[in-house]
Design brief:
Order of helices and strands: HHHHHHHH
Protein name: Cysteine biosynthesis protein CysZ
Number of helices: 8
InterPro entries: CysZ/EI24
Keywords: Membrane, Transmembrane, Transmembrane helix
Strand content: under 5%
Helix content: over 70%
Structural class: mainly alpha
Subcellular location: Membrane
Number of strands: 0
Membrane topology: Multi-pass membrane protein
Radius of gyration: 21 Å
Oligomer: single chain
Length: 246
């Protein structure tokens, strides 16, 4: 696993990968800026008007709970774009990864596994759908853990473990679906859940590093291509040399 991570890191700055890396970083920066500003505006609205609206909807019995929630949201809104950038980064990288999955995987497979059958590119709609589902699930899990972050340090650990599970799950399935039907790829991930989660810890650590985490889609995808190859075992379907025509 460590060898796979080192190979992914070293290949990130290779000439073949450099164009994808810059495109990935540029798209991530645009998305993170737009969504972070949107999140800050949403939190600011809730801290001022949303509490009153929800109390009218739920009833006065919820006043104390909503007051506490409003206080939490006020702190989050005060942190503004910085908070949004940290909070949304795993979700953003999930979405960006779905756009570059095949570009990255093709380069890794050509360089490290030239004798094996190359993977088949995922349909664009399917790759995007997987990225959106993971991004939304990431935001949902993080929202559930948000109060723990503000009241106890355990919340940061929950964030980290959630990122490991969610990102490991997505990147592995994207790599596996180049060679298997979606259901078979998901079943393979479940059968190797402990290994995939452990690999996800590497990606969660990477996405936790400011600035560097903009390259998470490249690292995560390259890393999981190697992990899928290792878990698949030996591959008998080697490319046959072209026969000479007499």
């Amino acid at each position: 696993m460590l060898d796979a991570a080192i190979k992914a890191l070293s290949q990130m700055i290779s000439p073949a990968m450099r164009s994808i890396l810059w495109r990935s970083i540029g798209l991530a920066l645009v998305l993170i800026t737009v969504l972070a500003i949107g999140l800050q505006r949403l939190l600011s609205w809730f801290a001022t008007s949303g509490e009153i609206w929800l109390e009218g909807l739920l009833g006065p019995g919820w006043h104390s709970s909503l007051e506490i929630l409003s206080w939490i949201v006020s702190i989050a809104a005060g942190l503004g774009v910085v908070f949004g950038g940290i909070f949304l980064m795993p979700a953003i990288t999930s979405l960006v990864a779905s756009l570059f999955v095949d570009d990255v995987a093709d380069i890794v497979e050509r360089e490290h596994y030239p004798a094996e059958r190359p993977g088949v590119a995922l349909p664009f709609s399917q790759a995007i759908l997987e990225g959106i589902k993971t991004a939304l699930l990431t935001i949902l899990v993080y929202l559930a853990a948000l109060p723990l972050v503000l009241f106890a340090g355990a919340g940061f650990l929950i964030f980290f473990l959630a990122a490991a599970w969610l990102l490991g799950r997505e990147y592995f399935e994207l790599a596996a679906m180049r060679f298997r039907p979606p259901e078979e790829a998901k079943a393979m991930r479940r059968d190797n859940a402990a290994t995939v989660f452990t690999a996800g810890l590497f990606i969660a650590a990477f996405v936790s590093i400011p600035i560097v985490n903009l390259a998470t889609p490249i690292f995560g995808m390259a890393f999981m291509v190697h992990m899928h190859k290792r878990l698949s075992g030996s591959r008998p379907e080697l490319i046959e040399p072209a026969r000479q025509v007499r």
